[in-house]
Design a protein that fits this description.
363 residues; alpha/beta; TIM Barrel; 10-stranded mixed beta sheet; 17% strand; binds S-adenosyl-L-homocysteine
């Protein structure tokens, strides 16, 4: 198993305290996210044979155990000793299914915070749209999550739990994970990268099938490139010039478009992988042919792909989704400039489960 230095998971993450004869400590960190080797080391610290590490790994990641008490292959007495060591699973607060099969989950975390996760089935895939934070501090003008403010970062187990929850609900293996739920993943890079590592090695999802989407945080795309993970990078661009971008995305005022694009170029140079640019189409705001030309100029010769996302309505602002012919005209203008682009079909729109509509409400 090769682990890049930044991503090494420290053994101090594991609940050594559970060995204490005085019982368990409620503050011990959850097991979810630990590798097979780490779990093996942990069971051995508990005077258990090494093969129990493999069993624990299988019960946590494949059988969906929520408590160590459930693990029937473990000796009864030991199960009682470690009964309170948390695995780190959430509980289901609410579940809604849209007519297109998309399922939105509201999950309750250990501290009662609620986050959203979306399961998106297609013929060949099951994609999970995961949250990386409770709320989001970026406050992009068109996004529902930002309107609700920010509470805290998620821990790695809270990210992995979302994927396991969807997998169990659909009774189908998750093929893809996109960090496009609540939050800005690159404001929480440690937990996000640890979770990616575990989703890959422990849950068995290909690194290339994992997409990290960011609106841009200075220096963090560079850091992602250096992590040498083969994840897909999606950058939420949404505007073809700095002035318009700064109007839509407050954080862009401190991180100009030119600097963001420069970091993206470095990302391509270091990883050899293309970047996806996300571009929400807001009628009359950023969807004119002139915007498409301006965007094309920035992206010419750039190893990239543009995903056009027709705006999904949220109640707080009165942006409009452009008409289909406007969307097509924008796409054609990009194609004429030899820029690879596609329009993303919105899933889960009827149940407020689509991009930008996530918030911790019961609707
Ligand atoms: N903070 C990260 C990930 C979360 S948002 C980011 O910004 O990339 C995931 C995607 O949904 C982003 O591209 C985001 O800009 C887009 N989005 C937000 N609000 C939207 C809306 N109302 N309609 C359509 N897409 C939206």
């Amino acid at each position: 198993m090769s682990v890049t230095p930044q991503l090494q998971i420290s053994n101090s993450n594991l609940p050594k305290e559970a060995a204490s004869p005085t019982g368990t400590n409620r503050a011990v960190p959850p097991l979810l996210g630990a590798s097979k080797a780490e779990l093996t080391e942990w069971v051995q610290q508990q005077q258990q044979p090494a093969y129990r590490g493999q069993q624990l790994h299988q019960w946590i990641y494949q059988k969906g155990a929520r408590s160590l008490c459930e693990i029937s292959v473990f000796p009864k007495q030991w199960r009682t000793t470690v009964a309170e060591v948390p695995i780190g699973r959430s509980t289901l607060h609410h579940r809604t299914q849209a007519p297109d099969g998309t399922v939105k989950f509201l999950l309750r975390l250990a501290d009662n915070q609620i986050i959203e996760t979306v399961g998106i089935p297609t013929e060949k895939r099951l994609t999970v749209c995961v949250s990386s934070q409770v709320g989001c501090p970026m406050a992009c003008d068109f996004c529902a999550t930002g309107k609700g403010g920010f509470s805290r970062n998620l821990a790695r187990h809270e990210i992995i739990d979302q994927v396991l929850t969807v997998q169990e609900d659909f009774q189908q293996r998750v093929s893809n994970v996109v960090f496009m739920g609540m939050g800005e993943p690159l404001l929480n890079p440690e937990a996000v990268l640890d979770a990616v590592q575990s989703l890959n090695q422990d849950v068995g999802i290909g690194q290339r099938s994992i997409t990290v989407s960011t609106v841009g945080v200075p220096g963090r795309i560079r850091r992602l490139a250096q992590s040498k993970l083969q994840v897909t990078l999606a950058v939420s661009l949404h505007a073809s010039n700095q002035a318009l971008r700064a109007q839509l995305i407050p954080s862009a005022r401190q991180y100009p478009l030119a600097a963001l694009l420069q970091e993206c170029r470095e990302y391509v140079a270091v990883t050899g992988r293309r970047v996806s640019f996300e571009y929400i189409l807001l009628a009359g705001v950023n969807d004119l042919p002139a915007h498409a030309l301006e965007l094309a100029q920035h992206l010419r010769g750039f190893q990239s792909h543009v995903n056009l996302i027709p705006y999904n309505p949220i109640s707080e602002v009165d942006y409009q989704r452009p008409d289909p012919d406007r969307i097509k005209a924008f796409m054609d203008a990009l194609k004429q400039q030899h820029i690879a682009a596609s329009v993303r079909r919105s899933r889960g729109l009827e149940k407020d489960a689509a991009c930008g509509q996530l918030r911790a409400s019961r609707t």
